[in-house]
C-alpha cells in the first residue's frame, strides 16, 4: 500500500489558486458577452502568442494534437507521403501523420537532449519525404540549424512541435531565436500540464507566412468562408473563448513561472552534486550551453535496470514520478504494421527503459526537492 503523496508530481492548484479571482472575472465577462467560440479573447491571445514566439501570425485551435493535424493538412500531406518524426515523443506527433493516410517514419534521438537526431533524420529520408516534425522535448529546443539545413537541401518542410517548450530559445543560424519562429510552422499545446496551460484543451500554430495562416484559419472552421460555403474540407478545430480568456491571464505570469522552473532545475543539479552519486547510477538532463531550457520536465536516467524499482520505492515514500516515455513510438502496437523492429532505434530503446521524470512545477518547495533527492540517493546507495 502506497503512502499519501508527500511530494506531488504536479500540483496545478499552486499555480492557479492565486489567479482565481482574476480568472473568475474574465470568465464572467465571456458569459456576459455571449460569444463563446473564437472572438476577441482568442484574437488577443493569438496576437500575444505570435509576438512572444517571434512569429508574425498565430492561429489558435482546439488542442495541440489538432494543431499538428492542421499543419499537415495545410501542406496537403496524405497517402503516399512520409513524414519523419522522433520515436521518443508523445503519441500525437506521429498519430497526426497516420490520420491523414501518410506514413510516420521514426528517427532516433540525441542521448543528451532526448531530441530528434539530425543524422538519424538524414538516414531516413526518401523521395517520399514531405516534412520533418522536430519536437522540442521536455522544454529544450531541437537542433534546428542542422534540421533546417536538411530540410532545405531536400526541399521539404520543417515543422516545430513546441507543445512542451513555449519560451525555449536556441541559437539558430547564428542568432538567438525562440521556438515557434524557426520552422515553416510551429505547433503549441496548452493542455493544463504544459508550462502555459489552459483549463481544458487548447492549441495554436505560429507561422511567418500570412497566406498559410489564412489557410489554417479556414481549416479550423470546416473550410467555411463565407458562412455555409465550404472552400476546402476542414475540421472543427476552433478554440473556445473561455480558454482564450484563461490563457490571456496566465500569459502575464509565464516568464515568472519559467524562471521558477529554471531555478528548480538548477537546485536539482546542486542537490544531486552534493550526493556524490556516480554517473553509472544516474545521469542528469543536459543543460544547453546557449539558449534557454524551460523545463517542462526534469528527466533523469536511472541505470543498471533499476528505474522501475526506484519508482516503486519512491511512491512508497510518497514521492510521485512519471515515465515519459516507456516505449519509443516505433515499438507501440498501433505502429508495428509499419515494420519497425526492436533494435532499429537503439538509443531510443535504451533510454526509454531508463528515463524517469521528477517533480518540477512552479510552487514546488525546496524541502520537497530535498525529499526527492534524499530518497533517490538512499535507494541508489543501497544497490
Task: Please describe what this structure looks like.
Helices cover 38% and strands 15% of the residues. The two termini are 23 Å apart. The chain has helices at residues 13-16, 20-33, 40-53, 64-74, 92-99, 118-124, 144-154, 210-220, 241-251, 254-275, 307-316, 346-351, 366-381, and strands at 57-61, 82-86, 103-107, 129-135, 157-161, 169-172, 175-178, 185-189, 203-207, 282-283, 298-302, 355-358. The protein is built from 13 helices and twelve strands. Strand 4 (129-135), helix 7 and strand 5 form a beta-alpha-beta unit. It is α/β, with parallel strands linked by helices. Helix 2 packs antiparallel against helix 9 and helix 10 (254-275) packs parallel to helix 13 (366-381).
Spell out the blueprint of helices and strands.
Blueprint lengths: L12 H4 L3 H14 L6 H14 L3 E5 L2 H11 L7 E5 L5 H8 L3 E5 L10 H7 L4 E7 L8 H11 L2 E5 L7 E4 L2 E4 L6 E5 L13 E5 L2 H11 L20 H11 L2 H22 L6 E2 L14 E5 L4 H10 L29 H6 L3 E4 L7 H16 L2
Parallel strand pairs: 2-3, 2-4, 4-5, 5-8
Antiparallel strand pairs: 1-9, 6-7, 8-9, 10-11, 11-12
Helix pairs in contact: 2-9, 3-9, 4-5, 4-8, 10-13
Q: Gyration radius, to the nearest Å? A: 21 Å
The best one-word shape is globular
Number of helices: 13
Strand content: 5-15%
Largest sheet: 7 strands, mixed
Major β-sheet strand ordering: 1-9-8-5-4-2-3
Cα distance spanning the termini? 23 Å
* Structural class estimated from helices and strands: alpha/beta
Average per-residue pLDDT, rounded, comes to: 95
